[in-house]
Write a structure and sequence with these properties.
The complex is a heterodimer of chains A (about 240) and B (about 220). Chain A has one domain. In chain A, helix 2 crosses helix 6, helix 3 packs antiparallel against helix 4 and helix 3 runs parallel beside helix 6. Chain A starts with 6 loop residues before the first helix and ends in a 17-residue tail after the last helix. With about 240 residues, chain A is an all-alpha fold. Chain A is about 70% helix and about 0% strand. Chain B is about 80% helix and about 0% strand. In chain B, helix 2 packs parallel to helix 6 and helix 3 packs antiparallel against helix 9. Chain B has one domain. Chain B is built from 10 helices and no strands. Chain B is globular and about 60 Å long. Classes of the chains: A mainly alpha (about 240), B mainly alpha (about 220). Chains A and B meet through helix 4 and helix 6 of A and helix 7, helix 8, helix 9 and helix 10 of B.
Chain lengths: ~240, ~220
């Protein structure tokens, strides 16, 4: 199984896109009329959040593929997708908090539905690795983790809808996250940031996949050379350890 | 399928009748939490959204107790193995367990809701009763479906008592939102306001989506 194919062009593309996006953010996009310079964290925060959510859903799709095919590579893909999405989600929560503090004066605002639903989704996915860790049998671990990934993947849009319904009547949205109300140069910057962030996510995902599968293959080669006695026993882990 | 489901439900109800493991515990827990809320909030009577919030958070936490126990007997006494050996549709297990959890919740609420009215609720509840019943049933269905799924997911893990609430509570946030928002106007101090139908819609949508989803993935939790 080769996960490392195409890593070099992907890495170069994400380096160029992320650098380009930051250049656009600082030198091209205008300062927001209401919020001033602080609003530029938007170009980091929103792509982080969108990419993290898409990654969660992708984890669910790979979960479906695993259950259908019983191919461990899909479980590995699902695991790594959710793992990296969790890291992106922490970034999104922190930048969101900073933005909220700067523009509304509070570190946390409960009446911003996107922020609240994001926290709920984050809390749910934070249980993904404990769940995997507490199941010892690798086959069952993969199967249960896939079921969790599918259920949670469906939960993401449903939860956003419910939270938004609960709050939206009181507070009109200042800036629609889809970019519908943005002037052209802001939208351009935002789209470049979004594509750059997505590219970075895919690159990191592939790197992690390549690293994980390399160490799994290394272990099986060692076993072939030295036999089972020559190997340290597998540590219990949340990550898939077999392909 | 229907006879299998009926047999499984009968078995679980008989177990509950003989051991009294779930319903009395859930009930005692709910009443205790009402008392805790009385002291924690330092209020003698609640109304409106505060009352709805206290009621739903309590019922949800009590439901988690039921989820924790739902599959324990199957696992420890070999019920899963016996079920897998039998030539029956595996989905029957999901349907039966969800029905049993739903029944437990209804049984708990039959006592816990009147206890709540008696202990904490400021306005009377008589005129809003049909609406309240609709909200309770829809929310119970959602809790039962998700609770069965998460209970089956968590019972095979080593840290069952931790994993089940940690996964179930975030998954049930939409139910709390829908149920609490729907219940709040019914419990207003000055008499019940009209129920907002869209919250019933949210609950029904949640039930339908997670019902279908659980129906689709539950088989994978039983495989050996």
């Amino acid at each position: 199984m080769t996960f490392g194919r195409g890593l070099r062009p992907l890495s170069i593309a994400s380096a160029v896109l992320i650098t380009g996006a930051f250049a656009l953010v600082f030198f091209y996009a205008p300062n927001d009329a209401d919020q001033g310079f602080v609003q530029k964290i938007f170009y980091l925060h929103v792509p982080l959040a969108i990419v993290a959510l898409c990654g969660f859903v992708a984890g669910g799709i790979y979960g479906i593929l695993y259950l259908r095919s019983n191919d461990r590579a899909h479980d590995l893909r699902s695991y790594v997708a959710i793992h990296i999405s969790l890291i992106f989600a922490v970034g999104a929560l922190i930048t969101g908090s900073i933005w909220a503090r700067a523009s509304w004066g509070h570190w946390w605002v409960w009446d911003e539905p996107t922020l609240v639903s994001f926290l709920i989704v984050f809390l749910l996915y934070a249980c993904y690795q404990p769940l995997r860790f507490s199941i010892e049998d690798p086959e069952r671990q993969a199967r249960y983790a896939s079921v969790f990934a599918i259920v949670a993947g469906v939960f993401v849009p449903l939860n956003f809808m419910a939270v938004r319904l609960a709050e939206s009547l009181a507070h009109p949205r200042v800036l629609s996250t889809t970019g519908g109300a943005m002037p052209g140069d802001m939208r351009m910057t935002f789209l470049v940031s979004l594509v750059g962030m997505a590219c970075l996510y895919v690159t990191l995902w592939k790197y992690e996949l390549a690293a994980k599968s390399a160490s799994i293959q290394l272990r099986s080669l060692r076993r072939r050379l030295a036999g089972d006695e020559g190997l340290a026993p597998l540590q219990r882990s949340a990550a898939p350890q077999q392909l | 399928m229907r006879t299998t489901v009926a047999a499984l439900i009968r078995k679980d109800l008989q177990l509950e009748r003989r051991s009294f493991e779930s319903v009395p515990a859930m009930l005692m827990f709910s009443v205790t939490v009402f008392v805790l809320f009385h002291f924690g909030l330092d209020r003698n009577a609640l109304a409106g959204d505060l009352a709805a919030g206290v009621l739903w958070v309590t019922l949800l936490l009590a439901a988690v107790l039921g989820m924790n126990r739902l599959f324990v007997a199957e696992r420890e006494q070999g019920g899963f193995d016996a079920f897998l050996l039998a030539p029956v549709d595996r989905t029957a297990m999901f349907v039966a367990k969800a029905a049993v959890l739903f029944g437990f919740l209804v049984a708990v609420e039959l006592v816990a809701v009147p206890a709540f009215v008696l202990l904490l609720l400021e306005p009377g509840i008589g005129q809003a009763l049909p609406e309240l019943l609709a909200v309770l049933l829809l929310a119970d269905a959602g809790i039962a479906v998700v609770g069965t799924l998460v209970g089956a997911l968590g019972v095979q893990t080593r840290a069952r008592d931790l994993i089940i609430p940690l996964i179930a509570l975030p998954l049930l946030v939409p139910v709390v939102i829908g149920a609490a928002q729907a219940t709040a106007p019914l419990l207003e101090a000055g008499g019940a306001d009209a129920l907002e139908v869209r919250w019933l819609g949210v609950l029904a949508l949640y039930d339908a989506v997670f019902g279908l989803l659980a129906y689709a993935v539950f088989d994978y939790l039983l495989e050996e």
